[in-house]
Amino acid sequence: MPATRYDLIVAGAGPSGLALLDALARVGLGDAQVLLVDRERRRGDDRTWCFWEIEPGPFDHLVAHRWPALDVHGPSADAPGRRLDIAPYTYKMIRGGDFFAATDAWLAGRPQVERRVGEVQQVRSEGERAVAIIDGERVEAPWAFDATRIPMESVDGYHLLLQHFLGWDITTPDDRFHPGVATFMDFRVPQRGGTCFVYVLPTSPREALVEYTVFSPSVWPQEAYEAELRTYLADVRGIDAFEVGRVEIGVIPMTDRPFPARYGDRVVTIGTAGGQTKASTGYTFRRVVRHAQALAEALARTGTPHLPARWRRHDWMDGVLLRALATGRQDGAAFFSRLLERNPPARVLAFLDEDTSLAQEVALMTSVDVPLFTRVGVEVTWRRWSARRRQATP
Ligand SMILES: Cc1cc2nc3c(=O)[nH]c(=O)nc-3n(C[C@H](O)[C@H](O)[C@H](O)COP(=O)(O)OP(=O)(O)OC[C@H]3O[C@@H](n4cnc5c(N)ncnc54)[C@H](O)[C@@H]3O)c2cc1C
C-alpha cells in the first residue's frame, strides 16, 4: 500500500509541536501540508508554564498573569529575603488549558494541518524522506519533527536528577498575596535529600499557585509533597485556612546528557525530547519556543531545518552544577539563593537563558564556591572524556 505523503510530519502536539506550527506560519510556511499526531487530544489543565521574557513574546495573548518582581528567600528562617526587580524581564504564566484551547481554535481554521490521534511507533530517516509509522500505517514527508522520544535513562559520564513537584491552586478567605510579586524560590523548608523550595505565584490577593519542588534522584509519594506544602503555608506564610482547587503534579528530567538533534538526516528532535529542557533549572517552555522559531527560520531560509552544531559551554556548566548537587557537595539552596542575591537579577536570568557573554559568566561565578566548582569542573570534563573513550573502544 503506498504511504500517505505530507510536506511535514510533527510527532507530538505538546508546546514544542504547536510552537513549531506557529513559527512556521510566522515565517511564511503556513501553507505546508502537515500531519500533527499525538496519542491523545490534550486539554492541558495538568500544567502551567512559567518563564521570563523581555516583552513582547509570541504567546503574549495567552499570558494569564505577569509579575515584574520576584522574591527570593534563602534557607535561613531569620534572613529577610530579597525582592528582585527583574527589568527588562517579566515573569509570565501561561495556563495549559488556555494554550491548548487557543491552539485548537487556531488549528480549526487551518485545514492544511491534519490532526490525528494515534500512537507513533517509529519516526526515522529513509534516504531523502522521513517515515513515520502511526498505528501500523506508514506516512512520509521530506521532514519530520519528533517530540515523542524522551530519553529518561542515565548515560555513562553524565548526570540525571529529577525535578519533581506538586502544586495547588489555592484560594484564601482573606487577602494574603501581592499579585505584583511572585516568589521565585523560597528555601525556608527542610532540605530533605535534595534541593527543596516553594514557588508562590499569586494571581490575586486571595489566589495563588503554590508549588513544592524538589531536585533529587527519585520522586516522592504524593502525600509527602502535600504535607510539606501544608507545613510551609502554615509555618512560613501563616496561612492555615485555604481551599485547594486544581492540582498539578510533574516530573521534569534534569540531565546534562547529550540529546540527538536529529535521527538521521530527516528527523529533527524538538521539545524536551530534543534537549530543550534546561538541565540546571528544568525550565523548558521559552527554550522550546525559541528553538521552534530557529528551526522554522532555517527551513524558510535554506530549505532544511538543520541548525549549526556548536560547542555550548552552558551544557558543560549545567553538568558541573548537576554533579555538585548529585554528589551532595553543593547545597542547592545555598547555591541558588547566593547566585540570585549577589548578582544583578537580570544578569542571572540572562545567564539561565544562556544569553550572557563569557565575561559576564566569569563575574557570576565569583559569587559561588570557586575552588569546589573548579574541582567538579575538572571531574566533569574527565568523566565525559573517559566515557567517550570507553564508547569508542570496541
Ligand atoms: C506539570 C508540569 C509543569 C511544568 N511547568 C513548567 C514551567 O512552569 N515552565 C517551563 O518552562 N517548563 C515547565 N514544564 C516543563 C515543560 O515545559 C513541559 O514538560 C512541556 O510540556 C514540554 O513540551 P514538549 O512539547 O517538549 O513535550 P510534551 O508536552 O510532553 O509533548 C509531547 C507530546 O508527545 C506525545 N507523545 C509521546 N509519545 C508519543 C507516542 N509514542 N505517540 C504519540 N504521541 C506521543 C505526548 O502525548 C505529548 O502530548 C512543566 C512540566 C510539567 C510536567
Explain the layout of strands and helices.
Elements: E1 4-5, E2 8-11, H1 15-26, E3 34-38, E4 48-54, E5 63-67, E6 69-73, E7 82-85, E8 89-95, H2 96-108, E9 113-117, E10 120-126, E11 129-134, E12 137-141, E13 143-146, E14 160-171, E15 181-186, E16 195-204, E17 207-216, H3 222-236, E18 243-255, E19 262-263, E20 267-269, H4 285-302, H5 313-326, H6 332-342, H7 345-352, H8 358-365, H9 370-392
Parallel strand pairs: 1-12, 2-3, 2-13, 3-9, 6-15, 13-20
Antiparallel strand pairs: 4-8, 5-8, 6-7, 10-11, 11-12, 14-17, 14-18, 15-16, 16-17, 19-20
Helix pairs in contact: 1-4, 5-9
The structure holds flavin-adenine dinucleotide.
Flavin-adenine dinucleotide binds next to helix 1, strand 4, strand 18 and helix 4.
Quick rundown:
The chain is α/β, with parallel strands linked by helices. The chain is built from nine helices and 20 strands.
